[in-house]
Amino acid sequence: MLSLGIETSCDETAVAVVDNNFNILSNELYSQIKEHSAFGGVVPEIASRKHIEKIDIIANLSLEKAGIKVKDIDIIAVTVGPGLIGSILVGLNFAKGLAYATKKPLYPIHHIEGHILSLLFDNNLDFPFISLVASGGHTNLFLVNSIGNYTLLGKTLDDAAGEAFDKVAKMLNLGYPGGPIIEKLALKGKNCIKLPQSFIVKENLNFSFSGIKTSVLNFIKNNSFKIEDLCASFQNSIAETFIFKLQEASRIFGVKNIALAGGVSCNSFIRNKISEFAKNTGKKLYLPSKSLSTDNAAMIAAAGISKHSRDSINFPFDFTLNAKSRLNI
Ligand code: KG4
Ligand code: ZN
Known about the structure:
Nucleotidyltransferase, domain 5, binds 5'-O-[(R)-(carboxyoxy)(hydroxy)phosphoryl]adenosine, binds zinc ion, globular, alpha/beta, 10 strands, 2 domains, 5-stranded mixed beta sheet, single chain
């Protein structure tokens, strides 16, 4: 069985073909980074327009790379939220048109479930596990009971972790997206600047990243420093916060296995630090491969496969499907 995944919730136009054994036949993507970098963040109107220009090109490329024709697809899966409404609408309407023309079932996918299921490709998952999804738009901690059964344990009350990377990079005039740039500079720096860990209260599993952002801003204004050291110290503080929350959730719920997914899970320093923590505490750690950490359509196609195997729908699909900028998992 072949699933065509479509993802346009932010600044990546992505289409992938995945089979029911979670083999990736193609995973194509147009990244709009260069369109947005001058603005230090994603400009929603530019993102929507670019998706319109690219979606059919990327879809055709994805089919071609997979060596199949559109008639060979069995199901279609598309991100319906959360994300930028105009961007999601481009992918969703493309998917609706395709589903209507090919008479294939169309599965609406929650973007964050996609990130969790990016773990299906490179891990043998034992349930339950605690999963932290840290991206540019979200920082959510889940108890994953099984595929499709998620309990939200905590979330950010202000900025997302990836957003904090992006904003700190902007303060330092380093460019967009901030995560990869900060990671690279941190390699040449030392964790020698004292910054607070990014949580407000230790008693619950929520996150807050606005405090560390303000600390970094104050530090920049009042001190002379090596940018590399600030990057290393900031990155370390984020990693410690992740570990603290994963450890707390694992202790409270008595769950040994932990996971990190989403764009920030691409960061090697954070991956290594959490791996070390998992090793030292006898926990199993699940990570997506780096190429599947940031937004992609393979994870959406995989979510479609798992939805289809749980409660398969037939054509015609729900024509009233709509994009949602906010959406509970
Ligand atoms: O999951 P994602 O591609 O998109 C959203 O769903 O938001 O995540 C993008 C975020 C950006 O904020 C970016 O700075 C961050 O992930 N990111 C990183 C790294 N690569 C991407 N953060 C830290 N280190 C990285 N290497
Ligand atoms: Zn994402």
